[in-house]
Write a structure and sequence with these properties.
The protein is an all-alpha fold and 116 residues long. The protein is 69% helix and 0% strand.
């Protein structure tokens, strides 16, 4: 996968991870995106995918986590997430993809339970 193709994407102009990709944000932005993701923020899902796919601002480079977040964003209707998920998947084994999908299902299960 060409990491520049992922870092060049931005969810929204005001997105925290857009600032991370530009290099002018702090490590705690990943934590704030995680908090927003718990509330179902689709842009936060995408932004976390970018952070984990590039290993930026305190997030380790973790393609399983990146795939999980891009998958959640794609399922929720984010326009660019499906392509990013495919790009990340090109660098993963079938076992890693299965693990990412399991983690995405678990995230959905836990966040739906909390909301109920």
């Amino acid at each position: 996968m060409n990491m520049n193709s992922v870092t060049g994407l931005s969810a929204t102009p005001a997105s925290p991870i857009t600032a991370i990709a530009a290099g002018d944000a702090h490590d705690d932005l990943v934590a704030s995106c995680l908090a927003a993701a718990q509330g179902g923020d689709i842009s936060a899902y995408f932004d976390l995918g970018v952070a984990y796919s590039t290993g930026s601002h305190g997030a380790p480079c973790d393609l399983v986590e990146a795939h999980k977040w891009f998958n959640l964003a794609a399922v929720a209707g984010h326009d660019e997430a499906a392509q990013c998920r495919a790009d990340v998947a090109d660098e993963m084994t079938a076992r890693e993809i299965a693990e990412a999908q399991r983690r995405a299902r678990e995230w959905l299960r836990l966040t739906v339970r909390r909301a109920a």
